[in-house]
Write a structure and sequence with these properties.
The chain is built from 7 helices and 9 strands, in the order H-H-E-E-E-H-H-H-H-E-E-E-E-E-E-H. The chain has 212 residues and is of the alpha+beta class. The chain has a 6-stranded antiparallel beta sheet, with no helix packed on it. A 3-stranded mixed beta sheet has the order 1-3-2, with helices on one face.
Amino acid sequence: MNQLEKNKSILVKYIPENAVVTIAEWIFQFDFKLKIKKDRSSKHGDYRPPIEGKNHQITVNKNLNKYAFLITLVHEIAHLTGWNKHKNKVKPHGEEWKHEFKTLMSPFIHSTIFPDDIKYALNNYLRNPAASSCSDISLSRTLKKYDQRDGIFLLEEIPVNSVFKIKHDRHFIKGERIRKRFKCVEVKTKRQYLFNPLAEIEMVSEQILQNT
C-alpha cells in the first residue's frame, strides 16, 4: 500500500467518504503532517508552520464527528495556504485567511458531502468566518446534532433548575439565560458561573446529589 492509499484508509475513519480523495491529495500537495489528537477542551485543531526544516503540521481532535472534523481540518489547511502566500505578515484570522478558507471549502459546499442543515449553517458562517466554528452558535449547534452523545446533553436541552455535572464531578444548578449564556450556581461553593448553552453536561438526580 502506497502512502496515498494509506492516508485514505486513515482519513475515511474521520471525515465523510466523499471528501477523502481531495484531502488525501492535499496532504501531498501542501506537504503537511496530520496528527490526530485526544480531546482538547481549549481547541479543536491547530496549525504549526514549517520551522527548523520540519513539515507543516496540523492537529485535529479525534472526538469530533466527521463533519466537524472536516470543517476543522479545512480551517487549519487555510492557515497553511495562507502562510505559504503571506508567511506571518498577516493576522491569523484576517481577510487573507478568510479568503483561503472560503476557497478551500467551496468544493465541499457544492457537493453532497454535508447534510442540508449543515450546508445551510455553513453557508451562513462562510459569509464572515471567525477564528473558530464554535463561535458561530448556529453552526456549532447544527454540527452537534451529529455527535454520538451517550448520556451527554447540551445545557440548553435541560430544564431550568436541573442539576448537572461537568468534568471533575463539579455539580451545578441551571439558572435563567442571560443574553447568550446561562447563569448557573455551583452546588458546593454557591458561586455563579456563566455557561455556553452548548456546553456538554451530564444530568444528575437530586436524590443522588443529596447522598453524596
